[in-house]
Amino acid sequence: MHFAFTDEQGMIAETAKTFFAENATSERTRTAMADTGVDKLLWQTFAAELGLAGVAIPEVLGGVGLGMVELAILAEEAGRHTAALPLLASLALAAPAILAGGSDEQKAHLLPRLASGELIASFAAVNSDGTPGAMFSDGTLTGAALHVPHGASADLFVVATNNGVAIIERGAPGLGITPLTSMDQTRPYARLDFGGVAAEALANPREAANAAFTTGWLAIAADALGGAQACLDHTVAYAQERVQFGRSIGSFQAVKHRLADMMIAIEQARSAVYWAACAIDEESDEAPFAVHAAKAFACDTYTHCAGEMIQLHGGIGFTWEHDAHLYFKRARSNASLLGTPDWHREQVAGLAGLDEAA
Predict the structure, then answer these.
(1) CA atoms of 298 and 300, how far apart (whole Å)
(2) How many angstroms separate the most distant Cα atoms in the chain?
């Protein structure tokens, strides 16, 4: 099958590419890292002026009414520049949960404000590994949630527990928000403590959680694809400039082979990401398989390319002043968030029936 963007998708891709290249600079990302982790001016321009935060929200609810391919395009370009935006938390996790599982009143009240950038939302998932978890009962949240992306900046939280999905607003009595020190400062995390917080239940919790995870996995995969491509682009440019033994290091066969391996992996990841996006949009039976495969493959590719970027940049690649570490840390964050590549491969194996065959 030959996949190509439609004319409209091509225009969105070009707009996003230009916007992030001109505005999501390393200097602005580093400034945001030293503050809340959100470039607020960039987010307002992205959401309010360009209207891109509502790309996957229906027009009747203040959005643009497009789909997962368009969302993947935006996430890829944001990842290419390690943009300090709550795109994953607000656009790819919280908004789909509300859209899929909220009541008509909840959707009408919240989604237009998320699409316009007036609100920043985040998504907190129950922990299944023995760490603190949240419980929702009789309209009250108790317990805690860890590793909530952009939790310290969010105005609204969608909290998924084993017995329901609830919405709480920042400032709710009993809600404690503690910023966490994390490796990836471009996407900081927070801990939420629920001291008997009154919360509003979503009408369809199962649909809400499924939509949030599916869209979140796709967005992380697309972010990883963009980051991996940036690692290759930066490394190729450096290999053409860096001279050793009287010629550029990019002319050495060993370096060429490593760059070629990066390119091949990236193209495979690109196919996986946009296959998953198309499968979700078309409500294909392949969608669960595709999105797990995309998350695993794209995150592994990003980790590999970020490591190669540091190695091929030599000593400068290890310094704080160079952006290589921003990509390496984002790659590690993507790989661990919402399931490791190994976990996603286990899901692929199960969907393919390999566990039964074994």
Answers:
(1) 5
(2) 73
What are the DSSP calls for 46-60, one per residue? IIIIS-GGGTTS-GG
List 136's β-bridge partners, or say none: 141
160-197 pLDDT per residue, tens? 988 889 999 999 999 999 999 888 999 999 999 998 89
CA distance 248 to 239: 6
For the stretch 65-112, pLDDT in tens is: 999 999 999 999 999 999 999 999 999 999 999 999 999 999 999 999
Given a cut of 60, is residue 129 above it in pLDDT? no
The interaxial angle of helices 7-23 and 68-80, nearest 10 deg, is 20
**For the chain, what are the domain ranges?**
7-116, 121-206, 213-357
- Report the C-alpha gap between 307 and 317 in whole angstroms: 10
**HEC states along 242-271?**
CEECCEEHHHCHHHHHHHHHHHHHHHHHHH
Phi first, then psi, for residue 166 (nearest 5°) are: -130, 160
The CATH label, of 3.40.50.150, 1.10.540.10, 1.10.1740.10, 3.40.50.2300, for the domain at 7-116 is 1.10.540.10
Between CA 111 and CA 73 the distance in angstroms is: 21
- Provide long-range contacts, Cβ within 8 A and 24+ apart, for 22-25: 24/78, 24/81, 24/82, 24/83, 24/84, 24/85, 25/81
Conformational region of residue 198, where left means phi above 0, alpha means psi within -120 to 50, and beta covers everything else: beta
pLDDT higher than threshold 90 for residue 134: no
